Task: structure prediction
Amino acid sequence: MQASRNNPALGGGDYALGLVTWNLGKDWELPGLIEACEETGFRSVELRTTHRHGVEPHLSREERVAVASRFGFSPIRLLGLGTACEFHSTDRSVVSRNIEETKQFVELAHDVGALGVKVRPNGIPDEVPESRTLNQIAEALRECGQHAQGYGVEIWLEVHGPRSNSPARVRRIMELADHPMVGVCWNSNPEDVEEGSVAASFDLLKPWLRNVHIRELWRKDYPWRELFDLLTQAGYRRYTLAEIPASSDAVRLMRYYEALWRELKGS
Result:
């Protein structure tokens, strides 16, 4: 497991709170998004593709420089670009198209100063053996990782999709991909929980952990405090990114979310 060694996200330090613009934040342009994060204690963002901020591969060189400068002059880190690129299809042309799109996002991430590009599986097709799909996803990730290495950008596989969100399956994909620029985006799914604990799932994926999505912290069916403790024990030193629904009073919600996050984290 060469790629799991010397994980840059682990090994000392502390982690902070950030935001995924999946739903909350999807309608903000960059100035408003950055201002809201500054006001509420959020310290980083993962920009979801297709949303109003408009940070997409079609941006010109000048527009990319402007995005990088906007974050460079703020305390908010542009952590990643959240794509919908996926590699599980039984149609090879679809997989190839998604690989090429991922490479475009890698180049964009480099230009705007983002650390990583998030990709995902979105299911395990029944038409082919599962092992073939896992190998196919891993090969695609390795190709994207090889491209990303030249740009100093990481590829984060979100633990996502029916059956493909199994921590055991994602671990197998990571073992097969075996590339230093390829890691896992923890997604805080119900499937992580076994007998009230996420410890076993966390242990499966910890060697490749590069990014963390968190959800509704008020939910009692997910052991948030245990997850935060596991992150601390692992020396996770990046961000936990809130992936939560939109609100008509988003800044007020973010303030409450940040307060509950601090309470659960114990800081």
